[in-house]
Amino acid sequence: MINCSATANKICCVTGDKTDCVPRKELLGKSFCNQDLLKAPNSDWVGVDAYEALSYKWERMSLWFCDGNEFQRLQRTDVRTLVFDGAASPQWACYVTTGYKKHGALVTPVNSKRFGVFRFEALTVDCTDNQKVLSIYNRLEIELRLGLWRSIMESLNCPVHVMKEIGIERWDDFEQWAKPIYKSPLYKFMCYLLPSQEELKAEK
Fold it and tell me: 158 with 171: CB under 8 angstroms?
């Protein structure tokens, strides 16, 4: 908890607003390297609201969904459902990480429609076109279940023995489909959302 008697009416380095603040060093240390994300990077103060949000452990160490009223920690399966079905909240944001080190709240867009934009590590992923999202994901999932590894689909670097197993014609067809889009944030995000080996084993 913040000691209210220690606050001062200053410019918040995070939001740029003049508000009740505490010294910036209480939140951001010398190792903080995202100065470009701050609205007032030269300020030595951080607002109380920003302090409370960014000092919350799970904001930077989990996958999460927030609608302004509730903060929910997620699993990959939860994110998959949210991407495909959308969110019912008037405003919401979703951050997806595999590194568990960054302040997702500083970079995650806020959405006001059912299908929105997600933050996936350093990528901003537009999932507003649900038909396009499902089209890419469904193709990737089919290929995964037919024998293509996730890493192969991410890199389009297919070992010869795998190519022989699935058939050269099928690989050529997949490669031609994927090559124009495999470096896009949406394609990379869909690869991440594919079922894990544990999920596939559980189905069997």
Answer: yes
Residue 153, number of CB atoms within 10 A of its CB: 22
Listed in order, strand segments (DSSP E) in 32-116 are 45-47, 63-66, 71-74, 93-96
What is the Cβ-side half-sphere exposure of residue 166, based on CA atoms within 13 angstroms?
A: 22
Distance CA 175, CA 172 (A): 5
The rounded Cα 58 to chain-centroid distance in angstroms is: 14
110 Cβ partners below 8 Å, 6+ apart? 91, 92, 93
Residue 193: how many other CB atoms lie within 10 Å: 20
- What CA–CA distance (Å, rounded) separates 193 from 17? 37
What is the DSSP pairing of strand 123-126 with strand 117-120?
antiparallel
- For 111, which DSSP code? B
> pLDDT (tens digit, 9 = 90+) per residue, 111-151?
999 999 999 999 999 999 999 999 999 999 999 999 999 99
